[in-house]
Amino acid sequence: MNEQSFVADIAIIGGTGLYQLDGFEELERRKLVTRWGEPSSELILMAANNTRVLFLARHGLQHNIPPHKVNYQANLWALKECGVKKIIAVAAVGGISQNMPPESIVIPEQILDYTYARKQTFFEDSLEQVTHIDFTQPYSAELRQRLLDAAETAIQGATYAITQGPRLETAAEVKKLQRDGADIVGMTGMPEACLARELEMQYACCALVVNWAAGCAGTTKIEHSEMQAIVDKGMVQVKAILKKALL
Ligand code: HPA
Question: Ligand 1 within 6 A of 189 CB?
Fold first, then answer.
């Protein structure tokens, strides 16, 4: 395959396993290195009929990169270099709002960013001018609608709070997030969303609720094994949504 052939219009950033999408054939894997460093994983190019999709494993193919260590800049830059214009980000999150229990699929509309010490921008050095991107609507309305059309039971209009991690929150922290207006909480939504905006790529998120956030619905402890069971079950649903949204 030649250099030009490793391109796609749309990409999925998500958990390991999502690149085995029913009906899609894997064409090629490539390990890229960008001026911002190495992406979390090699990029996997898949195709079905005339649709080509690139897949990037946010936490690495061995799932060994924690949320605060992900090189978000390299991930977004690598996708941009492969011609990607649209990104569907898949995320596992905790549910805060009563109507977002474990197993819910949520297509968030807004973001509250509580992360710190992550590289948030490409506009830092050797600038001709200072750049402030508009981020009033952090997600692409068009791409969100595409996901909502593909996922009949998905919840819309939610606000996604992104915490630094890697630890989960205290019950008091989740109460604060709730007072701030958050409906779900996760660790990877930022700076992924704003870096995509800086590179002028459409970006939307498909979130799977894998636990009640700390202290919600009487939760006294969050068990990893329970979260994992819901990830395994829920990702089947996410794959079906992705397939429908992509084809
Ligand atoms: N908090 C933060 N991130 C998460 C959670 C949570 O409860 N569940 C899955 N990712």
Answer: no
The closest alpha carbon to 183, from 94, 55, 83, 68, belongs to: 94
Q: Tokens 């996410």: give the residue.
A: 238
Pairing of strands 10-14, 43-48: unpaired
Within 10 angstroms of residue 200's Cβ, the number of other Cβ atoms is 9
**Ligand 1 centroid distance, CA of 205 (Å):** 15
pLDDT in tens, 227-236: 999 999 999 9
CATH level 3 topology of 3-246? Rossmann fold (3.40.50)
Q: In a 10 Å sphere around its CB, with 0-12 CB exposed, 13-18 middle and 19+ buried, how is residue 110 labelled?
A: middle
Q: Is 39 near ligand 1, meaning CB less than 6 Å away?
A: no
* Domain parsing of the chain, residue ranges: 3-246
Report whether 197 contacts 89 (CB < 8 A). Answer: no
What's the whole-model pTM score? Answer: 0.96
Give the residue, by CA position, lying nearest to ligand 1 atom 3.
186
pLDDT digits (tens, 9 = 90+) for 204-235: 999 999 999 999 999 999 999 999 999 999 99
User: Is the CB of 188 within 6 Å of ligand 1?
Assistant: no
